Amino acid sequence: MRSVLYAFICLCLMASCAQSQTATLKFPEGSKKPVKGEVVATFAEGCFWHSEIIFQSLEGVRDAVSGYSGGSVAHPDYETVCSGTTGHAEAVQVYYDPTKISYETLVKAFFASHDPTQVDRQGNDVGSQYRSAVYYRNEAEKKVIDAEIKRLAAAKTYPGKIVTEVLPFKNFYPAEAYHQEYIIYHPNNPYVKNVSIRDYEEFRRTFKGKFKQSAG
Questions:
Q1: Which residues partner with 42 through β-bridges?
Q2: pTM of the prediction?
Q3: Which of 182, 177, 171 is nearest to 75 (CA)?
Q4: Which residues contact 38 (CB under 8 A, 6 or more apart)?
Q5: Which terminus of the chain faces fewer neighbouring Cβ atoms within 10 Å, N or C?
Q6: Which DSSP string do the residues of the chain spell out, in sequence order?
Q7: What are residue 144's phi and psi, to 5 degrees?
Q8: Whole-number Å distance between alpha carbons of 156 and 25
Q9: Quick check: 86 and 71 in contact, CB under 8 A?
Q10: Contact (CB, 8 A) for 191 and 18
Q11: Torsional sign, CA 160, 111, 163, 119
């Protein structure tokens, strides 16, 4: 931290981005490299604590690693990202088996698990680091994202316009170790209990996808 003020701001942000404790919430610790046969996808949908359990709950996803994507500064840390000066969004790198879950399903889960009409925020988490974004790695992925946005708009799924950024993947930097699997290690954090877990349970009730039945 460069100042006491920055320290205070970041602590407040962590509290805002921050038991229904079920086995489905216990997953392996984050990794940084795909294993043989895996594909990687990158999504930003607000607090990455929330995003981790959303994607890790899906059958075919081995892991989701919290980190920072879409910015212009190499190897950012939480302090600089939360200052809003690096251009990064809190994101998750999703490692999945394409024979068990499709990219299309991941994109549907992404849109179903947050509000893509909010600009630079998700609920009480405010700032450009909480923006909605998908980072595609090829044109096939971009077509899937564009098609889902078009479908959701036609169905009037949301009352407002979808503002999700659809951008080519450039970088991803894993967040600090204490952010990885945060919900697992901090189940009594007020934000985790009152926001993350509730949002996850709502997603699990409403999303039409295959979920893991127990811990991996």
A1: 93, 135
A2: 0.85
A3: 171
A4: 62, 95, 96, 97
A5: C
A6: --SHHHHHHHHHHHHH------GGG--PPP-SS--TT-EEEEEEES-HHHHHHHHHTBTTEEEEEEEEES-SSSS--HHHHHTT-S--EEEEEEEE-TTTS-HHHHHHHHHHTS-TT-SSEETTEESGGG-EEEEESSHHHHHHHHHHHHHHHHTT-SSS----EEEE---EEEPPGGGTTHHHH-TT-HHIIIIIHHHHHHHHHH--S-B--S--
A7: -65, -45
A8: 31
A9: yes
A10: yes
A11: positive
Residue carrying structure tokens 């971009």:
142
The pair of structure tokens assigned to 111 is: 């849109």
Distance in angstroms (rounded) separating the CA atoms of residues 140 and 129:
26
Lookup result for tokens 């500064």? 73
Alpha-carbon distances, residue 136 vs 121, 139, 166, 167, 192 (angstroms)? 21, 8, 7, 6, 29
Inter-residue contact 17 to 191 (CB < 8 Å): yes
Q: Which of 12, 17, 47, 82 is catalytic?
A: 47
Largest CA-CA distance found in the chain, in angstroms, rounded = 49
CA distance 5 to 89: 21
pLDDT in tens, 5-39: 333 334 444 445 643 333 344 444 445 678 889 99
- Half-sphere exposure for 66 (CA within 13 Å, toward CB): 25
| Residue whose pair of structure tokens reads 């450039």 in the numeric block | 170
Tell me the percentage of the chain whose pLDDT exceeds 90: 69
pLDDT at 4: 32
